[in-house]
Write a structure and sequence with these properties.
alpha/beta; Rossmann fold; three-stranded mixed sheet
């Protein structure tokens, strides 16, 4: 039996990762989440009450709580998904990004280091600390630049990406300074089930269903590499099980598309699935809005290292992934209503450790 501590496991990527673990009867997940606006117990509804899923409400910045969890459950791995992630929010209010992404990661690393150094030699060697990061730390690419690799210099352009870059550097430093067996993954833009509706894809779907404008920044030509979240979660397991400590692995979807193409594709899928909708054709709802400050033009991920060394490839292409995503939001209106309700902002549920 293996215990793993997952931080941020009620959020989008972390929640999908927790769901991916459910068939694994040899693994127990201790799920630590602060339950901010983007972390929601509705995402974990199918997991709550299962003996191999232990949910604890709390903050990675709470060193005492983290240390107690480590001592009680003796995990063989820690996966850090906990982060503030929305660029627009980081522009409006950067303080929480510094607190969670930098200070929180530091506190988590310190608690982990204290726990790890007391393990016996075999347990020390087997232990892993996996930090989930983003391609935004690398900055922006032109249309002709090669894709980001693991050796691309960091050049963050928003408070969000700067805070994630700082957390990456801390994780790397703890490997080189203390020998803590760390791993870092830098992923491209994720999409799929359970994504909070402030992000482009779920926002577009829900606005289109309600006949609201579909806002696109600038000229809509900003390019992202789109990665289906289940593929990302499988990549994380691949890195956790076979990655080399101290290494970084890029994770991408091999699907560079601009925002305008993406929104039009979502509209086309909705037209097909909801032909009697009064909002058809949904593309008529597209509205161009003023570009946000520091908006990176293009991201692209080269995941050759992950593919060559560890044998990972995405299973979904952009067409199948988007169709699954649209269908999921159509089938899960209750979840959408729950996470967007104002009353959820005051909800604080959890269990004692």
């Amino acid at each position: 039996m293996q215990n793993i501590l997952v931080t941020g496991g009620a959020g989008f990527i972390g929640g999908n990762y927790v769901h991916l673990q459910r068939p694994n009867t040899n693994r127990t997940v201790i799920n630590l989440d602060k339950l901010t606006y983007a972390g929601n117990l509705a995402t974990l509804e199918q997991c709550m009450g299962e003996p191999r899923h232990i949910f604890v409400e709390g903050d990675i910045g709470d060193s005492k709580l983290v240390s107690e969890l480590l001592q009680k459950y003796q995990p063989q791995a820690i996966l850090n998904f906990a982060a503030e992630t929305h660029v627009d929010r980081s522009i409006d209010s950067p303080a929480s990004f510094i607190e969670t992404n930098i200070q929180g990661t530091f506190n988590l690393l310190e608690a982990t280091r204290s726990y790890w150094k007391e393990l016996d030699v075999p347990a020390k060697a087997a232990f892993r600390f996996l930090h989930v990061s983003t391609d935004e730390v690398f900055g922006s690419l032109s249309a002709t630049d090669p894709a980001f690799t693991e050796t691309t210099p960091y050049s963050p352009n928003s408070p969000y990406s700067a805070s994630k870059a700082a957390s990456d550097h801390l994780v790397r430093a703890y490997f080189h300074t203390y020998g803590l067996p760390t791993l870092i993954t830098n992923c491209s833009n994720n999409y799929g089930p359970f994504q909070f509706p402030e992000k482009l894809i779920p926002l577009t779907i829900l606005n289109a269903l309600n006949g609201k404008p579909l806002p696109i920044y600038g000229d809509g030509q900003n390019v992202r590499d789109w990665l289906f979240v289940a593929d990302h979660c499988r990549a994380i397991d691949c890195v956790l099980e076979r990655g080399r400590p101290g290494e970084t692995y890029n994770v991408g979807g091999n699907a560079e598309r601009n925002n305008l193409w993406l929104v039009k594709q979502l509209c086309s899928i909705l037209d097909e699935l909801l032909p009697t909708s009064p909002n058809c054709p949904h593309e008529k709802l597209i509205t161009f809005v003023q570009d946000r400050p520091g908006h990176d033009r293009r991201y692209a991920i080269d995941f050759t290292k992950l593919s060559t060394e560890l044998g990972w490839q995405p299973q979904e292409d952009i067409t199948s992934g988007l169709r699954q995503t649209v269908q999921w939001y159509l089938d899960n209106s209750k979840w959408c209503d729950t996470v967007t309700a104002d009353k959820y902002q005051q909800q604080r549920l959890g269990v004692a450790i």
